[in-house]
Automatic annotation (TrEMBL), chain A:
Organism: Pedobacter rhizosphaerae
Protein name per UniProt: Uncharacterized protein
Top-rank taxon: Bacteria
UniProtKB/TrEMBL annotation, chain B:
Domain RNA polymerase sigma-70 region span(s) in chain numbering: 26-96
NCBIfam families noted in UniProt: sigma70-ECF
Pfam families (alphabetical): Sigma70_r2, Sigma70_r4_2
Domain of life: Bacteria
Descriptive protein name: RNA polymerase sigma-70 factor, ECF subfamily
Record family assignment: Belongs to the sigma-70 factor family. ECF subfamily.
Amino acid sequence: MTKTSTSKTSANLPLQNMFQSSTDNESDAEINLFYDQIKNKLDSLMKSPSDDIINNILAYSKTK
Amino acid sequence: MNLQSNNDQELVKLYIAGNESGLQELLRRHKSKIYTSIYLLVKDQYLAEDIFQDAFIKVINTLRSGRYNEEGKFLPWVMRIAHNLVIDYFRKEKRTPIITSADGVDVFNMLHFYDESAEDRMLRDQTHKDLKAMIHLLPDEQKEVLLMRHYADLSFKEIADLTDVSINTALGRMRYALSNLRKMLKTKEVSYKG
């Protein structure tokens, strides 16, 4: 019988397992600091719908 | 008519009373928050615009028919409608979000970063793509909370109500979302300096 094993380094963990792993090692302060650091980057992903879509909505409103 | 100082509920009342500028101001005020939340879930500009439009058609129909009773909570209400439409879409498609980039050129970036070097722009574009991809990799329930909290600016109470979980669960999901993003950033060794 062949025994198989899998490396348990984080690089080889399935993503779902990574996500389920504990965050106990991280303090709230660390998480909050990270959020502060990344806020601007998250903000830079902000997008708006096209003017056409807004005009469609406003035009629809006038028919109601 | 300057309506920027009016709160959402006042704008809703104006609109119900027949003043179209109430809706215009509500759209101007919230369109990016709502659209970004939809877009980062469905990852397709045109689909996101369709869902955004459908959400506001429902909003208009509800307001015009006098069935609106959210009292001062316009944004969470619209987010709930948009959220349900996104869920409907994925149910119909019978699939979960996958990482495909269907988005076109990011006009926002072009407008705000026209004076940076080509190298800087390439780096920034890459970090954008990385961050977007990482958000898409988050489990759905964590991604939802992150988008609702950061982009739609909803309170944890509002998120908890909208997703039918306790406030503590919503808080925990946000924490896990951030922790996982942090982990992925470390793994990718992406630099997000200034």
